[in-house]
Automatic annotation (TrEMBL), chains A, B:
Gene3D superfamilies reported in the protein's UniProt record: P-loop containing nucleotide triphosphate hydrolases
GO molecular function: GTP binding; GTPase activity
Pfam families: MeaB (PF03308)
Protein name, as recorded: Methylmalonyl Co-A mutase-associated GTPase MeaB
Gene: meaB
Keywords carried by this UniProt record: Chaperone, GTP-binding, Hydrolase, Nucleotide-binding
Domain of life: Bacteria
Membership in a protein family: Belongs to the SIMIBI class G3E GTPase family. ArgK/MeaB subfamily.
InterPro entries xref list: GTPase/Isobutyryl-CoA_mutase (IPR052040), GTPase_ArgK (IPR005129), P-loop_NTPase (IPR027417)
Amino acid sequence: MPRPDVPDLVERARRGEARAVARLISLVENGVEAGAGDAGTADLRAVAAALAPHTGRAHVVGLTGPPGVGKSTSTSVLVGALRAQGRRVGVLAVDPSSPFSGGALLGDRVRMGEHATDEGVFIRSMATRGHLGGLAWATPQALRVLDAAGCDVVLVETVGVGQSEVEVVALADTTVVLLAPGMGDGVQAAKAGILEIADVFVVNKADRDGAAQTVRDLRHMMSLDGGAGGWERPVVPTVAARGEGVDDLVAALDAHRDWMDAVGERRRRRIARAESEIQAITLERVRSRIGDLSGGSGLTGLAERVVAGELDPYGAADELAGTVSGR
Amino acid sequence: MPRPDVPDLVERARRGEARAVARLISLVENGVEAGAGDAGTADLRAVAAALAPHTGRAHVVGLTGPPGVGKSTSTSVLVGALRAQGRRVGVLAVDPSSPFSGGALLGDRVRMGEHATDEGVFIRSMATRGHLGGLAWATPQALRVLDAAGCDVVLVETVGVGQSEVEVVALADTTVVLLAPGMGDGVQAAKAGILEIADVFVVNKADRDGAAQTVRDLRHMMSLDGGAGGWERPVVPTVAARGEGVDDLVAALDAHRDWMDAVGERRRRRIARAESEIQAITLERVRSRIGDLSGGSGLTGLAERVVAGELDPYGAADELAGTVSGR
């Protein structure tokens, strides 16, 4: 396969060409999977470098919540509401439990059927391909692709379940936690630490018994919370299947974005996320350099000396750190 | 508190002084918990360096299995059988779910009552003190303390439950998996990946209904397994509460140790473990150096440039790796 022309792809993605967007995300995914020294790694780095000047504009919104709460439906109607206002929208459906990745999943087409032919919407499924680490690494870069492609809002929806939800949602500027009445969700969510990460609550299926009570309970909790940092977290009732309350949700998302920008919170969150990302890449690089060493100065040689009692593991780590850093 | 005289403590531990052994393990635990630059870290390093020449002799045996299978009782009778042969024994009871650590736990005294006053036995409970990582780091060093103290065999028993069992047992030369009849253990153990890690199986409570069947099933599985690497994993029926079968278990442990030494497997396992340990210490050191940096060349400065679009995260990691390694 010929090496991709990354600057050209980025230019075309910036003009909104869906195929270029899809290709860049694939390059990111493949690069994260590739070993050091592989051409895929070079492509990933080229994509990251070419994207950098064109990112930082999109409002990244994460949606999470227990299974069955209506995340997919909510994402779909949210896309519709944002498109009705003329905004460009990206959707990353992240499924830590699925081995399937790519933009052509049947599930996506069916689920997002009404948006599939809309040129103002980019939809992409991402999956683990065997290790969750890969997903955690690829997702921030995929977000940057959609950002550079001119998306005003990027929705990150976690499919599947697990604590990975919390990690993935940590990529967002604004995190929406969806709950539904009568699912014992309050308790479950509290256990999973999911209440703390919410900037906006949605009580979906608000036409069901108990919905009003769930909304009241949450609003009471949030008022006690006292609006930590100046933001009292809103609770928005919706019936996503009928599109009810979705404009209120859009308004809540915009209000949170405006509040963050006014007090500098969005910048603070983005810096903290970039710190985590840079540190993870650096440590991975050190790990990879360690793996490349061989002979007596390599890991196995040092381990042999530890087993022989000639060296302790802390002394061995000193030698290894010196070798890896070239000192 | 005055700084400890580590070489003196190691000398006293080698002569079998229980208080010196306990103090060294405490220094290890405190050192692992301490931040970089703390005196505790220096003590930990001094202990590791002083121990190195005196380690590598003990046979490290890990015992694991589902809750209720009789791990504590089996450990206790195993201590008795080894002591009856005049061997010195160390016991590390590792409880990833408990916040309590130290040698004076009431539970230990009661449980190991008959051995508590035996000068040929060292018993120590280790717990997480809040993070499992700490336990994973401290345990190999604690094993080295008991090794240097002249223990012929060190038993590592995992108390509590969870996947951490597998990690902790990965410290052992020989891993014993305990099962019991009529607990659906076979399936559970297979799920947890616990069958693969076994070098020796014990079917405890062998006087119960179904025990003979469990033993037959396991032996059949092991014969199909074909003795991977030349070791056909034995299945030893025991009734630990009455001491039955414990001499067979001791014989199986010795046979596994002799087989490992004959084919070089013990050395291979120890080198692999030392590799993991050295790599973990090195990466932690890099992480700590990153945390020490500040200003424009530090993590926050780089993250600010990434957020501003002046730099991509991979370029930032290049700069950070260069700074950390002093190049």
